[in-house]
């Protein structure tokens, strides 16, 4: 069974899969983006120098980027867009959408005629992009928008399934309960409840969430002790989280797909929570529309995708399933 739906004669070869040690070290950073090499080595049974060297190599060559995720205020909502595009018009429209800061995710379907995107907007508003700009664009054949009603999980919650539950628990920082807020996928920026010092710290982390406290202090002019104390508080309160940006193909996950489900209302919450716990799911959202539950998945091959649909989704009361294979991930946080 092929691992790609693209024509091998025209598609570039997929990047090489990383070794298990590197995959486990990346998974450790998913638990805590500011994790020390010493702590990772202690939990994973590695040499601290080896951990430090491999992290330096993976981050240095761009394989891995650790990005800061400040909270997204509840006043910011999201739309899931599906845009059918006329032949020959795809590149220009994709570039225009990618340039917008309010659109953090853009995928192109493997069929080459559909763009899937996430757009941030004010909940309940008549979004200008959806109602005016896209319909008036000659390249657009049709556009549909589903409003995100509830987030079960998103990209910053996903964990590569190569650590044991004990290892993952040991590497994950304990956080104090906080108000219901979600990490912002578009990078650091002004957020509700942040004072100027916190805002300065988040801005200093915008390019690299692993920036040492001493470097942040030098950039911002705040005392290093204040920076360390504020960082600890931001992380503990859930006001700052981290996300590891990495090409899933480097982790052996060659199939990227969006699965749209029709779920009866009395099953929706249970199915959404079940999907959010699935190791393949890096995003699960309850939405408006006929397909009222959307899941984004990464899997090793088409056989695994078929197994997800025919086995993992059975017995949950799901009434219908539509699957769109992603041919190219144009824009993702950190990439």
Automatic annotation (TrEMBL):
<feature type="region of interest" description="Disordered">
    <location>
        <begin position="167"/>
        <end position="193"/>
    </location>
</feature>
<dbReference type="InterPro" id="IPR036390">
    <property type="entry name" value="WH_DNA-bd_sf"/>
</dbReference>
<protein>
    <submittedName>
        <fullName>AsnC family transcriptional regulator</fullName>
    </submittedName>
</protein>
<dbReference type="GO" id="GO:0043565">
    <property type="term" value="F:sequence-specific DNA binding"/>
</dbReference>
<dbReference type="Pfam" id="PF01037">
    <property type="entry name" value="AsnC_trans_reg"/>
</dbReference>
<dbReference type="InterPro" id="IPR019888">
    <property type="entry name" value="Tscrpt_reg_AsnC-like"/>
</dbReference>
<dbReference type="InterPro" id="IPR011008">
    <property type="entry name" value="Dimeric_a/b-barrel"/>
</dbReference>
<keyword id="KW-0805">Transcription regulation</keyword>
<keyword id="KW-0804">Transcription</keyword>
<dbReference type="InterPro" id="IPR000485">
    <property type="entry name" value="AsnC-type_HTH_dom"/>
</dbReference>
<dbReference type="InterPro" id="IPR036388">
    <property type="entry name" value="WH-like_DNA-bd_sf"/>
</dbReference>
<dbReference type="InterPro" id="IPR019887">
    <property type="entry name" value="Tscrpt_reg_AsnC/Lrp_C"/>
</dbReference>
<feature type="domain" description="HTH asnC-type">
    <location>
        <begin position="194"/>
        <end position="254"/>
    </location>
</feature>
<dbReference type="GO" id="GO:0043200">
    <property type="term" value="P:response to amino acid"/>
</dbReference>
<keyword id="KW-0238">DNA-binding</keyword>
<dbReference type="GO" id="GO:0005829">
    <property type="term" value="C:cytosol"/>
</dbReference>
<dbReference type="Pfam" id="PF13404">
    <property type="entry name" value="HTH_AsnC-type"/>
</dbReference>
